[in-house]
Amino acid sequence: MKGQEWYQADDVAEEYDDKRFSKGGQLIDRREKQAVLEAIMPVEDRNILEIACGTGRFTVMLAEQGADVVGLDISAAMLQQGRTKAQRADLAGTLEFLRGDAGRLPFPDDHFDTVIAMRFFHLADDPEAFLREMRRVSRDQIVFDTFNRFSARSVYNWALPMGSRLYSKSEVSELLAKTNLTLVDVEDDFLVPYGLYRSIPNALASPIRTIDTAVGGNAVTDHFASVSYWNTRLR
Q: Which residues cross the membrane (predicted)?
């Protein structure tokens, strides 16, 4: 996995949410959570694993909605941030954080209803192997996102701390076929790069987001979206 050491640093974990999901980044956070909830609904009583859960943005949200959730991450520092969030939250379901390797999940086959992986596959050195492991422990559904090859992200990808693996739609379709997953739905979003949203106040980012959403809502511009949200089921 790319960036393992970087993500495990205490200072990175402490500043992670503030740097990415404050200012206009709040719009990114809101959209990602919406994508996850829409894919999984109804959430209540669902047994969910999130791999690479980081600071627990999704794990805490899903537990608040009544799911029984396990969040797994390689970074002890990130997990500590998640535990702090969980202590402040009013959880309707259960939530457990575990430190572990997404390539060797410490769970039996068919253990979870749903497995999710957000902000993960852009770091994967062997996406097929990770997806197979996710499929092994899921009995129903896998939800994940990818950053896209034909987007503005490709222009500045080299400048990121560890870069990103960028995907074409055909590459993801091939991954799904190899791992015996059926595509239920895919949503494409964010013509404007994440970096711009994060760098400006929310008051400026909101009108940009309105235009982004309007322009991006057609089949032609979908090909240039920064991110795709994939909802898949086991065959």
A: none
Inter-CA distances, 205 with 11, 193, 226, Å: 27, 11, 16
Residue 107 backbone zone (phi > 0: left; psi -120 to 50: alpha; other: beta): beta
To the nearest whole number, what is the mean pLDDT of the chain?
A: 90
Distance CA 49, CA 72 (A): 8
Question: What band does 1 get if pLDDT is binned at 50, 70 and 90?
Answer: low
Phi, psi of 138 (to 5 degrees): -100, 145
Of 15-19, 49-53, 118-122, 197-201, the least confident: 15-19
Question: Containing H/E element for 140?
Answer: strand 138-148
The C-alpha atoms of residue 57 and residue 44 are separated, in whole angstroms, by 17
Beta-bridged to residue 185, according to DSSP, are: 231
Please tell me the distance from the alpha carbon of residue 59 to that of residue 164, in angstroms, as a whole number. Answer: 23
CA atoms of 181 and 220, how far apart (whole Å): 26
Q: Which residue has the higher pLDDT, 142 or 193?
A: 142
Tell me how many domains the chain contains. 1
Q: Of 48, 56, 89, which is closest to residue 75 (Cα–Cα)?
A: 56
| CA 235 – CA 39 distance, rounded (Å) | 17
Could you tell me if 157 and 226 are in contact, meaning their C-beta atoms sit under 8 angstroms apart?
no
Domain range for 213? 4-234
* Rounded Cα gap, residues 77 and 8, in angstroms: 6
Structure token digits, residue 203: 């008051």
The reply to whether the predicted model has a pTM over 0.85 is: yes
